[in-house]
Write a structure and sequence with these properties.
The chain is an alpha+beta fold. It is 34% helix and 23% strand.
Length: 124
């Protein structure tokens, strides 16, 4: 079983319904530019995440079984869709996401239930 995570551009503030719609359209193959605006923070997020947990498609076969990912990253300038092993979802969502954001982002968790969380930039 896998756990899917969509990181969406924070350029335009999304409410939960808009985030669900954007995630669904991207997951069904819509062109990213018809759904979201480009956001440099997506690239920064992917770089931070990949430094700790590289994309499974970039790993040698000997390291694939130790990866938390069950599929490669789907990346655009406005989003990244991640598929992880369900058993790794707690570690990744609990540790990777907060350290990697550092700025406003919207993301949708998709398994059997979709949840929406908004990260806000600190005003300090």
């Amino acid at each position: 079983m896998s756990f899917d995570l969509g990181i969406l551009s924070g350029t335009r503030r999304l409410d939960p319904d808009q985030a669900r719609d954007a995630y669904g359209r991207l997951a069904r193959g819509a062109k990213w530019s018809s759904v979201l605006a480009a956001d440099d923070r997506v690239t920064q997020f992917v770089a931070s995440l990949s430094a700790r947990w590289p994309d499974i498609d970039s790993l040698p076969k000997s390291e694939v079984d130790a990866s938390p990912w069950s599929g490669g990253f789907e990346i655009s300038p406005a989003h990244v869709l991640l598929t992880m092993r369900f058993s790794a979802s707690g570690a990744l969502t609990g540790a990777a996401l907060p350290f990697a954001f550092g700025a406003a982002f919207a993301f949708a968790l998709a398994s059997k239930i979709m949840t929406y969380v908004r990260f806000e930039e600190s005003s300090q």
